[in-house]
């Protein structure tokens, strides 16, 4: 039986697992989640939680479990996991493909300030100094904004931070996508948001904030994506399925 390991945690990984189950029911699919959430997604096949122990651990897993193909469908900003998957695949000889969702299209009316990393995003926000900013970078980014004063910082995330917020002007907004443009515009208007800080993640689930910022003529501080390792890349679950079929792994 063909066995495929999906490194998941994204909507694209879920779509791929379901696509394989529907299009190639004889394939054994294992989805691995490192994840920060307690919820178990509705997925076909088997679910694995936790890390592998770096590239060596993942390479051992690929061999021990007789994995025939590896699909890295982690978040576009999961830089370490992408490198780990690439290295482990090379060491084990298992074919690997990276599933990378398309980036949002920059449209007329967009005011993007593209920066290389989190520190540069903090510097850009400090320079803009809006009355309030909506920050959608996850809980790990909160501490980096301690050095900003005079700006109300609204951090939107899906799980609360482990540590209490450092300043009264910091606020956590717990929300989970997908989002719609009308509600995003209302949020930005009601909270008097003057800037959006986000990553160039792409994807439909969170595109509404980009469109809302465009409608309201708000600047968007956009952290660019890290480079991905060399090798096959697909933009959709359908593209990965085609790659698997070409190699005889999925029907």
Describe the structure.
The protein is built from seven helices and twelve strands. It has 251 residues and is an alpha/beta fold. The chain has a six-stranded parallel sheet, sandwiched between helices. α1 (11-23) packs across α7 (237-246) and α5 (181-190) packs across α6 (207-215). The radius of gyration is 20 Å and the shape is elongated. The mean pLDDT is 92.
Essential attributes:
251 residues, alpha/beta, six-stranded parallel β-sheet, 22% strand, elongated
Quick summary of this structure?
With 251 residues, the protein is an alpha/beta fold. The chain contains 7 helices and 12 strands. It has helices spanning 11-23, 54-64, 79-92, 118-128, 181-190, 207-215, 237-246; strands at 3-7, 28-33, 46-49, 69-72, 96-99, 111-115, 132-136, 152-157, 170-174, 195-199, 219-223, 233-234.
Fraction in helix: 25-40%
Q: Spell out the helices and strands N to C.
A: EHEEHEHEEHEEEHEHEEH
- What class, by secondary structure content? alpha/beta
Q: Count every helix, treating DSSP H or I runs of 4 or more residues as helices.
A: 7
What radius of gyration results from the CA coordinates? Answer: 20 Å
Shape: elongated
The largest pleated sheet is described as: 6 strands, parallel
Strand content: 15-25%
Say how many strands there are. 12
Oligomer: single chain
Low-confidence stretches: none
- Mean pLDDT metric: 92
What is the terminal separation in angstroms? 12 Å
Q: How is the largest sheet built, in terms of strand order? A: 3-2-1-4-5-12
């Amino acid at each position: 039986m063909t066995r495929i390991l999906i490194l998941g945690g994204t909507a694209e990984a879920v779509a791929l697992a379901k696509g394989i189950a529907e299009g190639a029911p004889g394939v054994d699919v294992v989805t691995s989640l490192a994840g920060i959430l307690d919820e178990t997604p509705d997925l076909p096949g088997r679910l694995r939680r936790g890390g592998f122990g770096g590239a060596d651990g993942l390479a051992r897993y690929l061999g021990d479990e007789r994995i025939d193909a590896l699909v890295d469908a982690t978040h576009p900003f999961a830089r370490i996991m992408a490198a780990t998957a690439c290295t482990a695949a090379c060491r084990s000889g298992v074919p690997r493909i990276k599933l990378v969702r398309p980036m949002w299209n920059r449209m007329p009316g967009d005011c993007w300030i593209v920066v290389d990393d989190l520190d540069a995003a903090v510097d850009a926000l400090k320079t803009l100094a809006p009355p309030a900013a909506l920050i959608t970078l996850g809980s790990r980014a909160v501490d980096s904004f301690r050095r900003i004063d005079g700006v109300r910082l609204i951090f939107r995330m899906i799980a609360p931070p482990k540590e209490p917020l450092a300043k009264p002007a910091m606020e956590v907004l717990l929300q989970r996508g997908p989002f719609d443009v009308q509600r995003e515009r209302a949020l930005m208007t009601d909270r008097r948001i003057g800037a959006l800080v986000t990553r160039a993640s792409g994807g439909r689930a969170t595109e509404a904030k980009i469109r809302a910022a465009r409608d309201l003529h708000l600047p968007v501080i956009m952290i660019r994506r890290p480079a991905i390792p060399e090798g096959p890349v697909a933009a959709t679950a359908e593209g990965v399925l085609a790659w698997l079929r070409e190699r005889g792994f999925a029907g």
